[in-house]
Structure formats: C-alpha cells, structure tokens
Amino acid sequence: MTTTDKERSGARPGVRPQYVHEPLPKPLPNVQHIRHRRNVRNLVIITVPLLLIAAASGYMASPWSKVADITVKGTSVVANQDVIDATKMSKRTYIPQVLLHHADFADQVERKVPALKSVRVNVAGAQNVTVRVSEYATVGYITQNGANHAVLSNGAVLKKSSAQPEQGLPLFSGFDNDLKNIIQVVAKIPAAIRQDISEVDATRGNGNPYQVTLVMNDGNTIVADSRTLAKKIKYYPSIKGQVKGKGTVDLEVGAYFVPKSTK
Fold it and tell me: What pTM does this model have?
C-alpha cells in the first residue's frame, strides 16, 4: 500500500486500529409464558364475579336468606306482637334487607308505637331478628269506655286496657288536649308527694280553666292552678302537719286549709 493509499484510509503507520464492541441484544421474553399469565388473569377477572353472582343468587333463592324469627326485648306495657306488627316483617322479608335498612325499620316501629322511646333492630344469627326497645314511663291512667288505659310520660295513651293498674299511679279525668301538659306538671311533683296522689281531675271551677283537683290517698284534696301546681305543692306536707282532720288544701290563690264539713 502506498503512502497515498494509507492517507486515504485514515490509518497512521504503527497504530493498530481500535474496534468498538457492541452489547449483545437481550434475549426475547418467553412469549408463551406471557400469554399463559395473561390468560389466567383474564380468566380470574371473568370467573370470580360470575361465582359471586351465582353464590348471591343461590343464597337469595334459599330459605336461609329470609327472616325466620323476630324477638322483642325491653317491653313491659307494650305488647310484643304490637312491636312485631309495626316492623312489617314477615317470613318473606330478606335478611340482607334488614341489614341494609335496620334504621328504617326502627323508625317505622317508633312511628307506629308512640309508647316506645327508642327502638333498635339487629340481625342475630343467620335468620333471627332482635328488636330492642325502651318505653316511656307509665305516669297514670285514664278511663275510656269503662276500662283503664295507661298514660305514658310523653302523653301517649295505650290502646290496650290495663286489667290491673299499677299501684301508686293516679287516675286522670276530664283532660283532653291538655292531658300532655298536666302529665308534665305532675312529673315535676316530688316523688314522695306524687306517690300519694290517687286522682287528678280537671275541675275548671271558679272561672279558671286551669283549675285542677288532686285526690290524695290520705283523705285530703288539693285544689290548685295547673300552671303553679308543681311550685306550690311543696307546701302541702307542712300544711298537712299543722292541721287536724281531713279537708281541702287550696293552693289556687295563696295556700290555706279548709276542713271537711261535719254536717
């Protein structure tokens, strides 16, 4: 090779040419393995929902999905059957429906049975429903059609009559729309005095529409204004201790004692 040829080739005398080593290409992934994994994933995505749907459909079609028994706890004056009827549940009611809407069932019972202060509906076991309730306190009774009906602290009157009225609770008479108000007034009376009240009558005498008369178990009567009764009745034990015999304690205007006539 002539000098001219060497110059054209770019090579210099006495210098070895350098070679650049390119990295070998990476091996191709296993195509079959990738396809297999992808197929398995797709199969899982399709199969799992189908299995869940099939299981749910089978459960809903089986007797295990429906209510078998309803238990009521916490009642004393309200009949258990009244609570059960208010739930509107039957053996056709689905357990999942109760689980999802238990608060709605509880609200429905409270609306239907005003004697209940609170209601909780829970699923107990696979097919059993428990309804736990608390009632308003019984504060007295009223007579309707010759039968005694319990009056509760919220003013509600039970439809079912009471064969044996509870001792120590008064009988209310003559009250209509003002029944709830007088119940709240009587509830404020000290327990020691309240337990001695036999009857609370709306007498409305002397031109006073708020006049009430209390018949006491000790033989006395109290005439008072319902608007001031809870405040003034605290004087009753003191007045009773200062007099002899039975009579009427007038708390309507002032506070004084009128003995019974001996005639």
Answer: 0.65
